[in-house]
Amino acid sequence: MNEHTARARRVGLGAMTFGAVAGTIVLVAPQAGAWPSNLEVSGGSTHNVGCSYTLTATVEVDRLLSVTFKDNGTELTGSPVSPSILSNKVTINWTPSTPGSHTLTATQDLISKSIAVDVSPASSFGSFGCGLNGLLPSLSG
Questions:
Q1: pLDDT class for 4, splitting at 50, 70, 90?
Q2: How many domains does the chain have?
Q3: Distance CA 107, CA 65 (A)
Q4: I need a surface site. Which of 27, 47, 49, 138 has the fewest CB within 10 A?
Q5: A GO biological process this protein is involved in (predicted)?
Q6: Of 111, 112, 81, 108, which is closest to residue 94 (Cα–Cα)?
Q7: Do 49 and 72 lie in a common domain?
Q8: CB atoms < 10 A from the CB of 58, how many?
Q9: What pLDDT was estimated at residue 48?
Q10: Is residue 77 located within the same domain as residue 46?
Q11: 51 part of a folded domain
Q12: 30, burial (CB in 10 Å: exposed 0-12, middle 13-18, buried 19+)
């Protein structure tokens, strides 16, 4: 093998290695921050013990892997949830059982999105009071 052939092989190997690394970065980097991209809880800014709310996670990239929902590290009943291939939204019902600060988390393929929610004690109107929150704040407990 002459010097020119050896040099061409090294250049080819270097270009192939660079292409493989660049391709991996392009494929992986955008997805790292995109699973899930958003997490929302229904009910506005008022949340009470015993009332039911909907958690909605937006999954921008992977609609094949399930999403696990947790409240303060404890997996919610009904979790994990498989996303629809036609929609980038995944939902689950959440009914807080304790007042105080709750960290709600949606995790898909080791990537998580979390939000903090403050939960007030149960309404003095029971489950009927769940519908009053925000409408008649002076009547809700």
A1: low
A2: 2
A3: 10
A4: 138
A5: carbohydrate metabolic process
A6: 81
A7: yes
A8: 18
A9: 92
A10: yes
A11: yes
A12: exposed
For residues 102 and 96, what is the distance between their CA atoms, to the nearest angstrom?
A: 8
Confirm whether 136 is domain-assigned.
no
Q: Per the omega criterion (within 30 degrees of 0), is the bond before 80 cis?
A: yes
Task: Report CA 62 to chain centroid distance, whole Å.
Answer: 12
Pair (67, 119) in one structural domain: yes
Q: In whole angstroms, give the CA distance from residue 42 to residue 134.
A: 12
- For residues 8 and 62, membership in a common domain is answered with no
Pairwise pLDDT comparison (115 vs 9), residue with the higher score: 115
pLDDT tens digits for range 48-83: 999 999 999 988 766 678 899 999 999 999 999 988
Domain carrying residue 6 = 1-32
- Tell whether 28 and 53 lie within a shared domain: no
Q: What is the DSSP letter of 138?
A: T
